[in-house]
Design goal:
Largest sheet of chain B: 6 strands, mixed
Radius of gyration of chain A: 23 Å
CATH class of the largest domain in chain B: Alpha Beta
Strand content of chain A: under 5%
Order of helices and strands of chain B: EEEHEEHEHHHEHEHEEHEHEEHEH
Shape of chain A: globular
Number of strands of chain A: 0
Order of helices and strands of chain A: HHHHHHHHHHHHHH
Number of domains of chain B: 2
Distance between the termini of chain A: 42 Å
Distance between the termini of chain B: 38 Å
Helix content of chain B: 25-40%
Oligomer: heterodimer
Number of strands of chain B: 14
Largest interface: A-B, 39 and 48 residues
CATH architecture of the largest domain in chain B: 3-Layer(aba) Sandwich
Number of helices of chain A: 14
Largest sheet of chain A: none
């Protein structure tokens, strides 16, 4: 046995806080995403509708423009329905943005077998999922609730204190409806990419899952003459929750509470799928 | 921090498939090689000691820390897997740097430390190229760099010599020795037995998920009683020596070398043989050299595991 000189010197400098390490993944993943010209262009396109809404708000408050267009002010009313329409359009854009950006976050790591490299650090599976999902979280926030809140502030500045006081709850609805959308889209896309491992197929699968669910729901409802099929229709569930949040009554077949629970179940299922796959080593039976 | 890597009655099952079973080990500092055929449990053992897989039963402690304490464990453990597992699109430098950031090193320290690690594995010139464009040997080296970048006390290296040319291999071995000489624990798995023999302070032999032997290779060889010890002797009168040795009951076989200047002896009791040989030397026999012929890893491997998949 050799006689060892005990001169080992580990790194003894300052460490970054544990909670902040997932941001390293966020930084790299976001940079990777914006290497794609298509994504960058699509991201810019996502701001066209908020700009159109901004113009709408301006026109609604400009008597001169309204007179020139010959429109009554009631047609362009800025209320809960306006913000529901805003979030619905942005929700559709978010869905396509996720279909493009989401699957590329985890699938390359799984396909390259690089997860052991992440996990042989002081870095947990939950932090990994958080780091990857936060890219989508921030990206989708930038095109959903953040412009929505800005629109609300602009409308409030035009409409005055009385309107703001009566409609302040819309801010909560905007944020909450966006967060539910972001949570379900992030989890669904990352879970699909973890299982499929092939970025393009995972993206296509995400695009297919929603209309397929809607079609299946309609088929079940028609054949069995029930309403329970709607639980398979993610689009219907989201619309139910949103109309409830924005206090718009559209006569939904299932209650908002049931839709909330169904979305929560979907989120938990996606999380379970993710945690089954995001491991240092996959056990193949 | 205690001074050993300890496995206490550790078993790992992947469903019904056995990974390792009832492993009890206490690994000291120095270079320890895990040796065994494919599927014998080497990688499982490494994954267990780095906390990447959890044991189905038993307890593992690395220098006093349980393997599920990732925050503390990976301050002093570096792991290089056997697979080409590189995230897409990173350069050699980014590869090391990003993982140091992930380990909690501030950006400036991470940059400095990454360059130091790249220098240690002689990859400075290629550091700005993408890892995807590296040769297999370069990939091995950059992977080693990421494992030792934070200067870990325990370095776990799965098949680190695979795919390396002889020069790179000797550089790598020198690096392991330097780390071990600094008091590190270098755990290596390898199929290249003659290199294992040269570099290892101790070996752990695995077969079908069981540890079949552990310790310094000579000690392991001495424990194998069913195979007689083989000794090479170069002397001026090998025939006479063979005849005298056959008078004792511990000599099993002797074969004279073609040049008539030596013999290969098989004996059941090496200690008694050496005592007898001393006597012959005192009586005027000129003995040039004595060397054990089968106390290397290759022989021990063949005796305990069989000769399948041995790389000579």
């Amino acid at each position: 046995m050799a006689v060892y000189r005990r001169n080992y010197r580990p790194y003894s400098g300052k460490q970054t806080p544990e909670w902040s390490r997932f941001l390293v993944l966020f930084r790299y993943s976001r940079r990777n995403l914006f290497r794609s010209k298509f994504l960058t262009v699509f991201f810019v396109l996502c701001f066209f509708w908020p700009i159109a809404c901004l113009a709408w708000i301006y026109v609604a408050h400009s008597a001169a423009v309204l007179a020139k267009l010959g429109l009554p002010a009631e047609i362009l009313a800025i209320d809960n329905k306006f913000f529901l329409l805003y979030i619905t359009v942005q929700g559709v854009l978010s869905f396509f943005m996720t279909a493009f950006a989401g699957p590329g976050l985890i699938s390359p790591d799984l396909a390259n077998g690089s997860l052991p490299l992440y996990f042989c650090r002081p870095f947990s599976r939950a932090e990994y999922v958080l780091g990857k999902s936060s890219v989508l979280g921030i990206l989708l926030s930038q095109i959903t609730w953040i412009p929505g809140v800005i629109l609300f502030i602009i409308q409030a500045s035009f409409a005055g204190a009385s309107w703001t006081r009566d409609n302040i709850w819309i801010v909560g609805s905007l944020v909450l409806s966006s967060l539910i959308l972001i949570a379900i889209l992030s989890l669904l896309s990352t879970a699909l990419s973890a299982w499929v491992k092939w970025r393009i197929v995972a993206g296509a699968l995400l695009v297919a899952v929603v209309p397929f669910g809607a079609g299946l729901a309609e088929a079940i409802n028609a054949v069995l003459r029930i309403d329970a099929g709607h639980f398979l229709d993610l689009r219907y569930l989201m619309a139910t929750v949103w109309t409830n949040l924005f206090l718009v009554d559209n006569g939904r077949a299932i209650s908002a509470g049931q839709a909330w629970i169904a979305i929560l179940v979907y989120c938990l299922f996606c999380l379970w799928l993710l945690m089954r796959k995001v491991r240092a080593y996959e056990v193949i039976r | 921090m205690s001074g050993r890597i300890i496995f206490e009655d550790v078993s790992k099952f992947y469903g019904e498939i056995l990974g390792v079973n009832r492993v009890n080990l206490s690994i000291p500092a120095g270079i320890t090689s895990l040796v065994g055929p494919n599927g014998s449990g080497k990688t499982t053992l490494m994954n267990l000691m780095t906390g990447l897989v959890k044991p189905s039963r038993g307890r593992i402690e690395v220098l006093g820390y349980p393997t599920d304490d990732a925050e503390n464990l990976f301050k002093f453990v570096g792991y290089s897997t056997q697979f080409d597992a590189f995230p897409k699109g990173l350069t050699g430098f980014q590869f090391i740097y990003s993982y140091l950031c992930l380990s909690g090193m501030p950006l400036r320290d991470a940059e400095r430390t990454a360059w130091q690690a790249i220098e240690r594995v002689n990859m400075v010139d290629a550091a700005s190229r993408k890892v995807a464009a590296y040769s297999k040997g370069m990939r091995q080296r950059i992977r080693l760099a990421q494992a030792l970048a934070h200067n870990p006390k325990v370095l776990v290296l799965d098949e680190p010599l695979n795919g390396l040319d002889p020069l790179a291999r000797s550089e790598m071995i020198a690096l392991f020795r330097a780390s071990a000489a600094e008091g590190s624990y270098v755990i290596i798995s390898s199929h290249i037995l003659h290199e294992v023999d040269v570099i290892s302070d101790q070996v752990i032999l695995l077969s079908n998920g069981y540890v079949v032997a552990e310790g310094q290779i000579q000690s392991v060889r001495n424990e194998i009683q069913e195979h007689p010890t083989q000794i090479l002797i170069r002397c001026d009168r090998p025939r006479e020596l063979a005849a005298k040795l056959f008078e004792s009951e511990y000599t099993i076989e002797a074969s004279i070398h073609n040049d008539g200047r030596g013999l290969l002896l098989k004996t059941r009791d090496a200690d008694r043989f050496y005592l007898a040989l001393n006597q012959f030397a005192l009586n005027g026999m000129q003995i040039e050299s004595i060397a054990p012929a089968d106390d290397d890893v290759l022989s021990v491997y063949e005796y305990l595991i069989g000769n399948e998949e041995v790389v000579r």
